[in-house]
Specification:
11 helices; elongated; mainly alpha; 45% helix
């Protein structure tokens, strides 16, 4: 594993080392993405160099920037956005469906900046990285509650040394998390609706005398976001998302 990058002295004292920290932070937060000159943020970098931001503050500011929002929120499904946030900011994939869905709801209910801060100001972040260490991929280490499946999911998120994290816009882990299976299972051929997902939900509205209290919607991954948005807009509550039964 690559040695973690830590700010070992004040940024305005050792500017060369500070520049290395900034470069590594950009690489981690933006998923190895090559950024154009207009995409970098000199004002955030200056705050860090001047001592107004810790590495934790630098990570947060870059992840809450318009560049990050443009690259990862606006171009991706909310599930892909959340799984990349886990990778970029906590150095691991989501552990399960509940964790993924919790952050999707947080994004929808409290907004973009609250979603980012929920990682970078979490107890887990501070325990893993402190305030002066750049986040890194922790999936190659033994984590509390970790498993082979956890490692496999982390590998599925790995774009490779020459790749970057926005090459695909659909979630790579949604099926795996919903079915508690290995990500490789997503690539296996199926029949009928094998690639579909079933959303179980309830509605505050009366849905008819002959309707069940718990409703089911069978959708593809590409239509998942629109379906959940529609359910939530009518006051519905998502109970679970699971792989649809094959015919």
């Amino acid at each position: 594993m690559t040695e973690p990058t830590t700010l070992s002295s004040a940024a305005n004292v050792d500017t060369s080392h500070a520049a290395d920290v900034i470069r590594q932070t950009y690489r981690q937060v933006f998923g190895n993405r090559h950024l154009m000159e207009l995409d970098v943020n000199p004002s955030i970098e200056a705050l860090f160099i001047n001592g107004d931001l810790t590495v934790q503050g630098l990570v947060t500011a870059l992840a809450q920037s318009e560049t990050y929002k443009k690259l990862f929120l606006e171009n991706n499904s909310p599930y892909r956005f959340v799984e990349l946030n886990f990778k970029h900011l906590l150095g691991r994939p989501p552990r399960d469906q509940a964790e993924l869905m919790g952050h999707v709801r947080l994004l929808q209910e409290e907004g973009y900046e609250a979603e980012i801060a929920s990682y970078t100001y979490s107890d887990e972040y501070l325990s893993a990285f402190g305030i002066d260490q750049v986040p890194y991929n922790r999936a190659t280490q033994t984590l509390v509650g970790g498993s082979t499946l956890f490692f496999t999911r982390a590998k599925a998120l790995d774009a490779g040394f020459a790749g970057y994290d926005n090459a695909e816009t659909d979630s790579k882990l949604l099926n795996s998390l919903c079915t508690d299976s290995s990500p490789e299972a997503q690539d296996r051929r199926g029949v009928g609706n094998a690639k579909s997902l079933t959303i179980n939900w309830t509605s505050r509205r009366q849905v008819g005398a002959n309707r069940r209290a718990v409703q089911k919607s069978v959708v593809t991954q590409t239509s998942m976001s629109a379906t959940i948005k529609s359910i939530l807009s009518q006051g519905g509550q998502i109970l679970s998302i699971a792989k649809a039964n094959s015919f």
